[in-house]
Amino acid sequence: MNQPGIGHNSAANARLTSFVQRIEKLEEEKKTIAEDIREVYSELKSVGFDAKIVRKVVKLRKMDKEDREAEAALLDTYLKAVGC
Amino acid sequence: MNQPGIGHNSAANARLTSFVQRIEKLEEEKKTIAEDIREVYSELKSVGFDAKIVRKVVKLRKMDKEDREAEAALLDTYLKAVGC
Amino acid sequence: MNQPGIGHNSAANARLTSFVQRIEKLEEEKKTIAEDIREVYSELKSVGFDAKIVRKVVKLRKMDKEDREAEAALLDTYLKAVGC
Amino acid sequence: MNQPGIGHNSAANARLTSFVQRIEKLEEEKKTIAEDIREVYSELKSVGFDAKIVRKVVKLRKMDKEDREAEAALLDTYLKAVGC
DNA sequence: AACGCATAAGTAAGAC
DNA sequence: GTCTTACTTATGCGTT
């Protein structure tokens, strides 16, 4: 493919390096935020809430109500199909 | 279970709501960063680099780094095992 | 700690190597089974079932009925607490 | 969605049940192997090795292996990019 | 018994 | 559009 000639083209090398560094920096930030989230869960746990359930709450709030209901209905159907 | 009595305790409700909102805000930020990363890939692609290759480069660099960290951790564990 | 002296004791070395190999072999087998499970999901998907829901079915069957109900009740309480 | 009509179709019910059982059986086997691995660790611990260290050794070996594979994959991608 | 870690499951994005 | 691969989330295990 035709990406800029690497290895014989210092300008392209520099450019690529720059892209890679930007990505790595962003990934670093993302990781930091993930840690912050974990901290919130651990704080909430330490004051007595059930972290597992709170995770479900967060997830459900993200889902559209319709989707939620459709999924619940399908699950119900399958459970009956397998005899539960 | 001994989580704060919810339902008859507006203070606990408010607290839980606050935790949930903090989490949602943080997840929002995380999502934004993930989008930024995708944008970098698309930018780099648009100037002629092969995104797939760059992804592998980033991955490899990360693995190398982790490898070094794992080695250091192992050494550390050895030292502790030996009483240092 | 007092694990057998490694590095100056070839018997201990051999023993450790043997343990490590046993573990690696077992992990290999575990990986194979995980692949088999994935294959079943993809087969069931190919004949029209919703793999995501089937996963939930499997998970729910594993849970005790009581636990299931207790969890559902708590989830409900939390959802109300945050105004859903 | 177009999954087989469940609930009014005993053939589909039977099929789903069969899939679920296959999965459950496979998960059982996987669980057994996980137990075997734990046993090896406990055996090795009982003869004086430090399980924590051995875990790290296993992990490191795995990472090294993955590293090599990732490198090979990158090389492969380069070659393809260049038309080989 | 709680805490953090490490593995495993589930979900979503990207390649072909 | 399918299919795989990568990332994220979640659970369980070992440790303190």
Question: How would you describe this protein?
Answer:
4 copies of one chain form a homotetramer. With 84 residues, chain A is an all-alpha fold. Chain A is built from 3 helices and no strands. The radius of gyration of chain A is 23 Å and the shape is elongated. At the A-B interface, helix 1 and helix 2 of A face helix 1 and helix 2 of B. Chain D binds a DNA duplex (16 and 16 nucleotides) through helix 1 and helix 2.
Task: Give the SSE map.
The structure is a homotetramer of 84-residue chains.
Chain A: H1 10-46, H2 51-62, H3 65-81
Chain D binds a DNA duplex (16 and 16 nucleotides) through helix 1 and helix 2.
The overall pLDDT of chain A, averaged over residues, is: 88
Largest sheet of chain A: none
Beta-strand share of residues of chain A: under 5%
Write down the overall geometry of chain A.
elongated
- Give the H and E element order of chain A: HHH
Please bin the fraction of helical residues of chain A. Answer: over 70%
Oligomer type = homotetramer
- The tally of strands of chain A reads 0
**Quick one: which chains have the greatest interface?**
A-B, 31 and 33 residues
Flag low-confidence runs of chain A: none
Number of helices of chain A: 3
Give the radius of gyration of chain A. Answer: 23 Å
Measure the end-to-end span of chain A.
55 Å
